[in-house]
Amino acid sequence: MSPPSLWWRRLGPSASGLLQKLHSAWTAKRQAAGSPTVVTGSDPQHYFDPDILARVGFSPLLARLVVEGFISGLHKSPFHGFSVEFVDYREYVPGDDLKNIDWPLFARTDHYYIKRFEDETNLRCTILLDNSASMAFGTGALTKWDYSCFLASCLAYLMLKQQDAVGLSLFGDTAGALVRPRAQRTHLQQLMKVMMDHAPTGGTNIAASLESAIHKLKRRGQVVVISDLIDDPEETLKALRLLASNRHDVIVFQIQDPAELEFSFQGATLFRDMETDEELEIDPSTVRTAYLARMQEVSEFYRAGLAEVEIDHHLINTRQPYHEALSIYLDGRSKVHRR
After folding, report:
1. Domains, the chain, ordered by start
2. Is the pTM value of this prediction over 0.85?
3. Which ranges of the chain would DSSP assign to H, the alpha helix?
């Protein structure tokens, strides 16, 4: 049985209270594991762990904390892919955004200067999020849907922080709710509300759904597909490649539960298809080798087939810290600017 969805649990208005909850959850986890290290402070980089987020509940505020912690980590490392590269200064003119003034330089020179950057071209991105019934599966703290919704929320916040426009389209057996790309910070709440209001249900027809979504993407931009890709691989690959043929820059995150990747079930097990309710009782040990070989074959099929049209395919385990997926997105965005 899948655990209840936790990501839309409401939080109190206090950011300090949220940080305390996060810190307490993280400390409790480390102590339960017998670790002699007890984390102190409220460093947001500690909260990339999906298990910690599941205990606290998700919100736009938490997405902001996770992304700010991720950005902080980038600034402390030699990685320079975030946003745009600083070039030089120009004098402030009335109408410039005051947040871009270099205040330390003002303190030294008594003049207002604005930072100039190498590339200030904004992107338009649409997140295509699978909400078919199979996404409700989960054997850990989070279902695939929970993980994917919060990943989409973090990606959206990161895009909005970079002043990119971001939209959302749900899909399953058909194309579902669509939110047009916008660049306002308040847009994140609307995107998360759409996810909250459309829990995973129904069957899967990725090919037809993506083809329908393509007609709604009026302008060329970046497309992030988040799905378990459980459907006919050949037809799904064709639809994903069609996105690239329409001159969109595409990144695919294939979300998988650890049980799907490892098939670690023991003893006679009754499996039920979450989309058709079909049931099958088998001994996992008799099919594990063939199952894992098939999973590897399908993953390589997607990777190679998408690479031919310059689409990055990334298999994501729901135990995987969120900062890894954020880094993948950021690297893809940098490639777009370099073309």
Report:
1. 86-117 (no CATH), 124-338 (3.40.50.410)
2. no
3. 15-32, 50-56, 60-75, 103-109, 144-161, 187-197, 206-216, 233-245, 258-262, 284-307, 322-338
